[in-house]
Amino acid sequence: MYRYIAFDVETPNRYNDRMSAIGISVIDSGSITEEFFSYVNPETFFDSFNTRLTGIDQRTVAGAPAFPELWERIEPVMSSGILVAHNAVFDLSVLKKCLEGYGIRWKDSARYCCTVQMGRKLVPGISHSLNVMCDCYGIALEHHKADSDSRACAQILLKYFEAGADEKNHIRTYRFV
Question: Are strands 82-85 and 31-39 parallel, antiparallel or unpaired?
């Protein structure tokens, strides 16, 4: 089994080009071995919709690191395995925009899996929203909290593997440049 880095980001506004929080859950040898959470100072404004959804506002991120400082801490983990997210293209696009916005060069592409896309193939006929999948598998979820969402994504991925999903059939490539 590969090493997987399940992650989830929350954003401060409709532009989805900055993070206000990130959660990371590392899967190694078939279990969650490491977890990380941080608020992120997006150095921009918050839309009221995003604040209502996530509970994060300017006060919450006061004193939190901006993305470049945080990236120094999380880049080794993010580079250490296959990235995984629930609706991965969204989370990957936010990561890409943050990297570009701060002029940070990472790598040209990354391998990833999307638990929504996997679910559509492996468990057809139901909604694949994170809360529905968590209900289906009995996974605890505090939705739109990056740490809870990344942990739930990791647990869903493990459920798919327990049910016999072949990981090689679900790995894609996301281009950062």
Answer: unpaired
103-143 pLDDT, tens digit each: 999 999 999 999 999 999 999 999 999 999 999 999 999 99
41-100 per-position pLDDT tens digit: 999 999 999 999 999 999 999 999 999 999 999 999 999 999 999 999 999 999 999 999
Residue 68 is predicted with a pLDDT of: 98
For 127, residues 6+ apart whose C-beta sits below 8 A from its C-beta are none
Do 77 and 5 touch, CB atoms closer than 8 A?
yes
Distant-in-sequence, close-in-space partners of 46: CB < 8 Å, separation ≥ 6: 12, 13, 20, 56, 57, 58
Are 137 and 163 spatial neighbours (Cβ–Cβ below 8 Å)?
no
The number of residues in the chain equals 177
Give the span between the Cα atoms of 152 and 131, in whole angstroms: 9
pTM confidence score: 0.97
CATH architecture of 4-175: 2-Layer Sandwich (3.30)
Which tokens sit at 99?
């990297």
* DSSP state for residue 92 in the 8-state scheme: H
